[in-house]
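Sharing in case it's useful to others searching the archive later.

Someone asked me privately for the predicted structure of ABC transporter substrate-binding protein, so I'm posting the question and my answer publicly. Question first, with the sequence:
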Amino acid sequence: MSKILKFTQFSLRDLFVAAAPSIALIAAVCALAYWLVDPQPPRTVRLATGQENSAYSEFGKKYAAALAKHGVKVTLVPSAGSGENLKRLKAGEVDIAFVQSGSTNEEAAEREGLTSLGSLFVEPLWLFLRETKGKPPITQLTQLRGMKINYGPKGAGAPRLFRQVLELNGVEKGEVERFSLANTPATVELLEGRIDGLVFTSAPEAPLIQMLLQTPGIKLFNFNQAEAYARKLPFLTHVVLPQGIVDLGRDIPAEDYNLIAPTATLVARDDLHPALVDLFVQAAASIHGGAGWFSQQGQFPSAKYTEIPVDAEAAKYYKSGPPLLQRYMTFWLANFLDRMWVVVVALGALILPLSKVVPPLYVWRIRSRVYRWYGQLRAVEQAVEEAPDDIRMQVYERQLVRLNEIEDLVNQVSIPLSFADGLYGLRSHIQFVRKRIQFLMGESAPVADDAVPV
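And my answer, the predicted C-alpha cells:
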C-alpha cells in the first residue's frame, strides 16, 4: 500500500526545491525593499523647546502628550531659545526643534540638512516697560537710550531680533544697557525695579506673557510703525493685540496694540523618519489649528511663513491632509502598509514571471530522476558495441550484471503517478537492452566440434 501511495502523492519536496531559487530571490527583494523604505520609525525623538514658562516649553509638553498616544516618547530638551535650538539641530544633538523665522536662510538650511515641518504660530516681539510717574510714556524706541533692558539669554531668538529692530531706529550698540537674563529671573528683576524693561518673543499662551499683561505698573510697548518694520524685515508680520482680548471685563488691554511678529517654525533634521514627520505635523494641526489671539481658525500650521524648505511629507499633508489609511487604521499599521507598497510592486513584478519558471523546473526535476539512468543505459550499450573479440563474452556478462544493478536502482525510484510513464518506459528499455545482450551472447557462443549439422 505504501508503494502505491508514494507514486500517487504530489511531491511537495520537489516543488519546494524547484521553487527555492525563486523564493530566495523574492525574499531578497523584499528584504532590500524593507531596508530602503524603512517602514518602522524610532520610538524616541528629541525635541528642543525653550526656557521655563515659555511658549516653546508649554507647547513641547503638548507635543510629547500627543505623540505618546502613538507609542512615541518625546524627550524634551530645554534651551535658551531659538538660536540655541538651531545650533543643536546642526550639531545633531536633537532631532526636531522650535525655531524662530529669520534665524537662518534657505541656503544655510539646505547646507546644514534642515527641513521645515511648517510654521506653527506667530510669536510677537513683546517689549514690557516699567511705568514711571512723572515721565512721559515711551512711544519711540529711540527713547530707550540709557535704559536697562533685558534682551534675553544668549541663544534665544529675542536678542538677535531686538538688535535688528534697534538698528533700524538708529540706536547703536551700547546706547542701551543690555542684560542677558533668562525670562523668569528677568521678570523678577523687572517687577523689583532693578531693570527698566524686558523683551520676549513668544506666543501669548506663555504664562509670563499672560501675567505681565495683567500686572499694574507694567506697560506693553505699542509698535505703531509695525507695518514699516514688516516691510523692512520680510520675516516679520504686523499683528494686532485687540482691545479687551486678555480680560474683557476689566478691558485689558485698554486699546489695540500693534506688534511685530516672526513665526515659530517646527524644524527637523532632514533624516528624521517620514513617519515621525507625519506624526508631528498631525500633532501640530491639533495643537495650533484653532483660532487664537493673532490667527484665524485653520491658518496654522502652514507651509507658508518659513524661509526653510518644507519637508516633502509635510507638504503632502498640507496639500491633501493625513494619509488615507491613517483615517481608518492605527498609525503603526497604516504607516507600515503605506510605506511597504514598494514591496508589493516588487512582488508583483517578480511573482508573475517566476510563476512561469517554477512549473518547468518542477517537471525537469522529476523527469531527471528517470532521464539520468539513460546515460547509464547508453554506457552499457556502448561497452557491448566496443567489446574486443577475444573477451567479448566476459564483457557481455559484466554488462548484464551492471544492467541488473541499474534495474534494481530504477525500481527504487519514487516519482508522482503523473510521471510514471517515463519510469515504465525506462524499465522497458532496460529489458530491451538485456534481450539484445542475450541475443549477442547467443550468437557469440562457440559451436561444439562433434556437432552434426542438420
